[in-house]
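Try it yourself: sequence plus adenosine-5'-triphosphate, in.
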Amino acid sequence: MPDVSPLIQSLRAAVEAAPADVPLRLHLAGMLLDAGQQDDAVTQVAVALQHAPGDSQAKALMTRAMSMDSPAGTPPSGPPPAPAAPAAPAAPPTEPAPDTSFNWGAAADQVKDVLPPRFVEGPLATDGGGDPEGASAWDVDVPGTVRLADVGGMQEVKDRLEAAFLAPLRNPELRKLYGKSLRGGLLLYGPPGCGKTFVARAVAGELGASFLSVSVNDVLDMWIGNSERNMHELFETARRQAPCVVFLDELDALGGKRSRTQSAGLRNTVNQLLTELDGIDAAANEGVFVLAATNVPWDVDIALRRPGRFDRTLLVLPPDAPARETILRYHLCGRPIEKVDLGKLVKLTDGLSGADLAHLCESAAETALLDSVRTGVVRMIGMKDMLDAAKQTVPSTEPWFASARNVAMYANDGGMYDDLVAYLKKRRKL
Ligand code: ATP
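Structure, out:
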């Protein structure tokens, strides 16, 4: 049945623009039910249940829809909804008493044509471990499509990556000629949420390699010997999947200064990692590339920073203007926006991290959504929502720069933090 109500029409458009927005979809479903479009309402609720399987409001709506005995498309008996009245928020009726007789199987059957199955059917693993041969505890992403060109701005980082990592890898002959060793890995460091993982993924994309991303905390295990075993298994997995980029996030979890006093277990794990790294240029390791990341490079074990290990570092700073534009565009695409002045926003958001920018877009969308539900008039996300959200977003990188400043001033041994010092000076933070 075509939509008669303009409100339903706009709600439908909003749902199409934000398909994962469950409250909005339930709001539409409630209006469809009120308008007698029962089949359509059931479909909407079913999709909502796919996103939020336990949502009680969705279940109540489904119960209501399935218990309406008027034929599909026929308005229910009783007074029709006043056309001009603002829509009730998300239309839940009074909380229904638990209906034990409701047949969820029949409901699922009714919508099976419009929904993908919730589970992949197939034989269950019965060997106890559940791991098919060759599988491992570590998830490896197949060679991805993210390339350095997808990393907005950050030209300096890209140039350094190209010179220090990618160019020698792409030109083994040149590498031989200049004797440039590729032993060890590259350590990315910088404030949280500024793109270290994203950059590492892009490097894997450039190399056409799989991507095995692991937080060092997930490798560590309280039982003696397990952490070393996990570390070895991680590299074994990478070797099986070569070419593969191993990305070790939170490298500082291996302790360094703290480990010597705290745990001999950590020391063994560091040693295991060193063994894996030292063997990285051996034939068995052909095609395994190691990147690591940390927000606190000053806490990384000194043994891991020696030549041939993670001796090369790359500072990943808060996104510059072109990067902020890319990130804002990414987080706004697929959302209903109007007249958003990206240039102005980019200027106003200097200092925010990628994660802060994602949060900003999320907050602006939330404001517009809540407004729409409250007034019953669906409206787009506008520049005012974005500006308000920007005003409320505090740069999460500030505490990091406070610590980094001390390190840059008093612990820049061997010029390791020269990049950081230069940046802090440029921003008048030093
Ligand atoms: P953490 O230290 O918390 O692990 P991180 O430094 O690894 O964070 P990411 O998770 O890679 O940060 O980035 C945070 C978000 O910012 C991601 O959504 C990422 O896609 C986005 N992002 C950061 N920089 C860029 C950029 N230059 N271009 C596009 N997206 C970016």
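One thing you can check immediately is this: The radius of gyration is 27 Å.
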